[in-house]
Specification:
Helices cover about 35% and strands about 15% of the residues. With about 200 residues, the protein is of the alpha/beta class. The relative contact order is 0.10.
Length: about 200
């Protein structure tokens, strides 16, 4: 989260190999709504946008210390007064973009972990289907073999998360939603209303 008004993210399509998905985010870092998506698509396909000359074409600059600022933002949102129990987890990062960030965060919060595919590889993430198959096969088995408390398979762009119980079984999506809502209920001392999209169990 920063003072920026919007964000754009390019990623290899998980549904159409060889294609690239373009995702737009608002100032709060949330995906824009369907109405805005459709409006952008109409402008793009009708080419109803101002074209510039060669001398006016901009450039993309890499943001300095973006990862460090992101790490700091996560750390600042954690209530350090909460006692952190000693957990052991197994994580498959599927060679994704967060492979530089996640191991350091686990170390910061003193979480014992076994991290798989913890290096970024453009070549590997182009074959998402194979990465997913390997992760869904290996994480449950390693959780059981190491007697870990939990296991996670995090998709390369961080867009999906699969959770494995200490029994080596995947937790179904609708149960994850309920567990998330339960954690909110236990963390707050007041009654709150939680809104979820109809598609939430499939996220």
């Amino acid at each position: 989260r920063s003072s920026k008004v919007a964000g754009v993210h390019f990623e290899a399509s998980s549904s159409s190999p060889g294609h690239t998905d373009i995702l737009f985010f608002d100032g709060d870092g949330l995906p824009i709504d369907t109405a805005r998506e459709k409006a952008i698509e109409r402008l793009f396909f009708r080419e109803r946008f101002r074209k510039v000359g060669p001398s006016e074409v901009g450039e993309i600059k890499e943001s300095s210390y973006a990862v460090e600022r992101y790490q700091k933002g996560i750390v600042e949102t954690i209530d350090h007064k909460i006692k952190q129990p000693s957990y052991r987890v197994v994580v498959d990062l599927m060679n994704g973009i967060h492979s530089e960030l996640y191991p350091e965060m686990l170390a910061h919060f003193k979480v014992e972990s076994d991290v798989l595919n913890s290096y970024f590889s453009e070549e590997q993430i182009t074959n998402l289907h194979l990465l997913k198959e390997k992760a869904l096969w290996s994480v449950p088995r390693i959780v059981k073999a190491t007697e870990a408390d939990m296991g996670f398979a995090i998709y390369p762009n961080g867009e999906k998360l699969k959770v494995v119980s200490d029994k080596g079984k995947f937790v179904e999506p609708h149960k994850l939603v309920l567990l998330f809502i339960l954690s909110i209920d236990r963390a707050l001392n007041k009654q709150v209303r939680v809104l979820v999209p109809a598609s939430c169990p499939s996220i």
